[in-house]
Amino acid sequence: MKKFLGIIIISLMWFSNSYSEQLSTDQKQEENPFAELEALNSTATKKKSIIDFSQLEGVTPVNNKEFQKWAEEAKNINGKKLYCANKSYDDYRNLVVLEFKYRNRVKVSGIDLENEKIIELYGRYKALSDEIIVNYTYDKTNIEKIISRKYLTIKQSSGSYCKRLDDDESVSDKLNLMLNEKIIDKSQSNKF
């Protein structure tokens, strides 16, 4: 009787869905020990699938060439003008006006107080996403200035600031006005 009862219980368990499914998955795992790892990989590749933009409203996919063109336009500073000075000096010694030209050329203008004239030099620049690197030569010395695009300051000079000039503002007129003011200040104390 006990044997018969044991056979009936085992047969009921066997025909039960949950027990037979459990046994069949256990047998499959024994056959392929990497089945669980393959299952994880298949779900990971499904998550990496391409986004269906047709379900999103007002969104269009951007290909790589369009993105590169947009990124280059964001870095483009042709025709822009920057006025950079140092807050601690009021004698225009560190005054620099940068005019960014076509093909990475830059016109660097400043005031030479010793000779009382305006200096105009040409150099090259490299516009990056977060800074502008300007290289030029003055008195046989190579000078490199790095301007932060975020803060509009010259990185090597503490206390410096830069201000963007409008396209219609004349750099030479502004520098001439500053030079004339400085010449008048210096010559007021002259007796001869």
Describe what you observe in this structure:
With 192 residues, this protein is an alpha+beta fold. The protein is built from five helices and eight strands. It has an eight-stranded antiparallel β-sheet with strand order 7-6-5-4-3-2-1-8. A hairpin with a 4-residue loop joins strand 3 and strand 4. The longest helix is centred in the C-terminal third of the chain and has 17 residues. The relative contact order is 0.10.
Short description:
The chain is an alpha+beta fold. It has five helices and eight strands, in the order ααααββββββββα.
Please describe the structure with a list of short key phrases separated by commas or semicolons.
192 residues; alpha+beta; Lipocalin; 5 helices; 8 strands; 37% helix; rod-shaped
- The radius of gyration is 37 Å
CATH topology of the largest domain, anyone?
Lipocalin
CATH architecture of the largest domain: Beta Barrel
State the distance separating the first and last CA atoms.
137 Å
What percent of the residues sit in helical stretches (DSSP H or I)?
Answer: 25-40%
Q: How many DSSP-defined strands?
A: 8
Give the C-level CATH assignment of the largest domain: Mainly Beta
Q: What would the principal axes of the Cα set say about the shape?
A: rod-shaped
Provide the succession of SSEs. HHHHEEEEEEEEH
| Contiguous uncertain segments of 5+ residues | none
Beta-strand residue percentage? 25-35%
